[in-house]
């Protein structure tokens, strides 16, 4: 059994094979800190090998989803050489720093890359305002649902900084380059309707329907699909966004069809369909991923 926590700034609950990760600094509108970063990474790392979890739902405690970076350090908030609360990020003067130093990496990007590597579907249930990292952390999640009271903002240009959390990769792929630039150039905060119209979220619902809607999506996946298939599909889709030719996707698809075609999961999927009964897929992500996985580590194709 996988143990999560204890955590200081997030809550984790596993029920009916759905893990709920709740950002939990309600008095600070769940503002993002180094502690929250480390705790979120811990969850998304552990969940890959936890066969008792089929999907992850991320939401916020209180009236906000996440108000962005904690600005309590004032002018030093984003200055890694001056912020006393983030001394571990001090890699030296901007004029002499080694740009490859691990300490230069931004915390939001560490989180979104951990989500990107996840083998379970991730659903954002955006319950209220989210700006900065509060919005960019959602981009690596697979499905985003918003409450009618949710707000979004890529506010970096209004703080004199730039987008982080690998959002310059994620955002244009989700909403298109023109919309991504419009939102990031202006830095304005916009409502849930505009987020849906722009393709950032797939659904907007009343507040009391937000988590039920997220859990319904997670339950449909849990109850009807093969865990290994879902894990492979998630990585195929996300990593396929970086491929330079459909032939690269064809190579990965072909390995999947060949390997999975001989699996016990596929036998069960076909027989259960013919017998008109629910499938009971026997294979699990922790030990039954096919031999060609992870294919992207090869860096070459044959």
Extract low-pLDDT stretches: none
Please state roughly what percent of the residues sit in beta strands, choosing from under 5%, 5-15%, 15-25%, 25-35%, 35-45% or over 45%. Answer: 5-15%
As laid out across the biggest beta sheet, the strand order is: 1-2-3-4-6-9
Give the terminus-to-terminus CA distance.
Answer: 39 Å
Helix coverage percent: 25-40%
- Main β-sheet description: 6 strands, mixed
Determine the number of helices (DSSP H or I, runs of at least 4 residues): 10
For CATH, the homologous superfamily of the largest domain is named as 2-enoyl-CoA Hydratase, Chain A, domain 1
Annotation, overall tally of beta strands? 9
CATH class of the largest domain: Alpha Beta
What is the residue-mean pLDDT, rounded to a whole number? Answer: 94
Give the count of structural domains.
Answer: 2
C-alpha Rg (nearest Å)? 20 Å
What do we call the CATH topology of the largest domain? 2-enoyl-CoA Hydratase, Chain A, domain 1
How would you sum up the global shape? Answer: globular
By secondary-structure content and strand pairing, the structural class works out as alpha/beta
Element-by-element helix/strand order: EEHEHEEHEEHHEHEHHHH
Could you please describe the fold and organization of this structure?
With 302 residues, the chain is an alpha/beta fold. The protein folds into 2 domains: 10-221, Alpha-Beta Complex (2-enoyl-CoA Hydratase, Chain A, domain 1); 225-298, Lyase 2-enoyl-coa Hydratase, Chain  A, domain 2 (Orthogonal Bundle). The chain has 10 helices and 9 strands. The strands form 2 sheets. A 6-stranded mixed sheet has the order 1-2-3-4-6-9, sandwiched between helices. Strand 1 and strand 2 form a beta hairpin. Helix 1 packs parallel to helix 2 (107-116), helix 4 packs across helix 5 and helix 8 (227-240) runs antiparallel to helix 9. The mean pLDDT is 94.
């Amino acid at each position: 059994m996988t143990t999560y926590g204890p955590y200081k700034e997030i809550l984790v609950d596993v029920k009916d094979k759905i893990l709920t990760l709740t950002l939990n600094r309600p008095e600070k509108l769940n503002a993002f800190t180094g502690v929250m970063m480390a705790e979120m990474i811990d969850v998304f790392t552990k969940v890959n090998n936890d066969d008792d979890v089929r999907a992850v739902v991320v939401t916020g405690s209180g009236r906000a989803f996440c108000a962005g970076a904690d600005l309590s350090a004032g002018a030093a908030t984003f200055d890694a050489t001056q912020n006393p609360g983030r001394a571990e990020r001090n890699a030296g003067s901007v004029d002499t720093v080694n740009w490859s130093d691990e300490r230069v990496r931004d915390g939001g990007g560490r989180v979104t890359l951990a989500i990107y590597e996840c083998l379970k579907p991730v659903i954002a249930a955006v319950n209220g305002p989210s700006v900065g990292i509060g919005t960019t952390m959602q981009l690596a999640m697979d499905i985003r649902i918003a409450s009618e009271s949710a707000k979004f903002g890529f506010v970096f240009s209004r703080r004199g900084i730039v987008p982080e959390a690998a959002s310059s990769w994620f955002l244009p792929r989700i909403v298109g380059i023109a919309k991504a630039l419009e939102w990031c150039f202006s830095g304005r905060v916009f409502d849930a309707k505009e987020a849906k119209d722009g393709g950032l979220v797939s659904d907007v619902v009343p507040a009391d329907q937000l988590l039920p809607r997220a859990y319904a999506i997670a339950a449909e996946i849990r109850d009807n699909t093969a865990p290994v298939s879902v894990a492979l599909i998630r990585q195929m889709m996300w990593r396929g966004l970086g491929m330079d030719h459909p032939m690269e996707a064809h190579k990965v698809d072909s390995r999947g069809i060949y390997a999975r075609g001989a699996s016990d999961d596929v036998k069960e999927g076909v027989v259960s369909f013919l017998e008109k009964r629910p499938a009971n897929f026997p294979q699990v992500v922790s030990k039954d991923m096919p031999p060609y996985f992870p294919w992207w580590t090869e860096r070459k194709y044959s």
